[in-house]
Amino acid sequence: MTDRKFAIVTGASTGIGFELAKLCAQNGFDLLIAADEPEIEEAALALREYGTTVEALEVDLADTDGVDELYAAANGRAIDALLANAGRGLGKGFLDQDFDEVMQVIDTNITGTIYLLQLVGREMRARGAGKILITGSIAGFMPGTYQAVYNGSKAFLDSFSWALRAELKDSGVTVTCLEPGPTETEFFARADMLDTKVGRADNKADPADVAKTGFDAMMNGDGEIVAGWKNKLQAAMAHILPASVTAEMHRDMAEPGGGIKK
Fold first, then answer.
1. Residue 262: what pLDDT?
2. CA nearest 118: which of 162, 55, 66, 67?
3. Are strands 54-58 and 5-10 parallel, antiparallel or unpaired?
4. What is the pLDDT of residues 169-225, one digit of tens each?
5. For the stretch 172-183, what's the b/e string if a residue is b when 16 or more beta carbons lie within 10 angstroms of its beta carbon?
6. Which H or E run contains 35?
7. How do the residues of the chain divide into helix, strand and coil, expressed in percent and rounded to 5?
8. Which keywords accompany this UniProt record (predicted)?
9. Which of 74, 159, 183, 190 shows a CA-CA span of 20 to 30 A to 137?
10. 255: which DSSP letter?
């Protein structure tokens, strides 16, 4: 039996998730990484360069059967850290979205995430030790005009993380919510948002910087961390301004065609 720490990282094929997995590898964790695309195998190859054991699993975490498969892949090994980063976006107006795609966002961001959190969280609580990092978003602080389902799902996670943290008080298990803003990842292409102002912006955050902020907060046992001073300012404004105002601010960022110069 190994005495090395063990972490599960979801959504780890690219972007913030890959960078979180890299930080785990650099800090002495063996890894089980998962994503719903074959690039997860390439990620595993890169992470093994850090001298850690990495198992990769291509699995649909929007499906509870997929979550069961991921949890079973841990083979009963004690999970020291769970970095629940898997997520999916969806742009354009809600009434114009395909409902199957809507449900894919909800099932990935909420259903699969909290099911995995319950499975792993019960084990951690029984052991009296463990660290959980949930990737939320500052999007959850404001109504998501032209991104309504995504923002709503992140609002759920932002709230859920604080509730779970309170329930686990004094248990030895900590829950941290990472709140990124727009980050230079595949997110906007996958969400069909490259024709928006936020999708085309060239000042998005570096996913490595965002991941480092979240990883450090998780290791410190912090409750929440907003990544980047601009996002801290935006989050503060979202808490002060009326929802009607922040909904219009979000329209400006996410309206289709808003990022194309005429």
1. 41
2. 67
3. unpaired
4. 999 999 999 999 887 777 778 777 877 887 888 777 889 999 999 999 999 999 988
5. ebbbbbbbbbbb
6. strand 29-35
7. 50, 15, 35
8. Oxidoreductase
9. 74
10. S
What pTM, to 2 d.p., does this model score? 0.91
**Token pair listed for 40:** 């997860």
How many residues are recorded in the chain? 262
* Torsion angle of C-alpha atoms 243, 249, 250, 252, degrees rounded to 10: 150
Q: Which domains are present in the chain? A: 5-254 (3.40.50.720)
Catalytic center residues: 150, 154
Which DSSP symbol is given to 76? T
Type of residue at 29: F
The torsion angles phi and psi of 204, rounded to 5 degrees, stand at -70, 160
Note the pLDDT tens digit of each residue in 8-64. 999 999 999 999 999 999 999 999 999 999 999 999 999 999 999 999 999 999 999
Q: What would the two tokens of residue 121 be?
A: 């969280």
What is the spatial distance between Cα 14 and Cα 6, in angstroms, rounded to a whole number?
A: 20
d(CA 257, CA 196): 6
Beta pairing partners, 84: 134
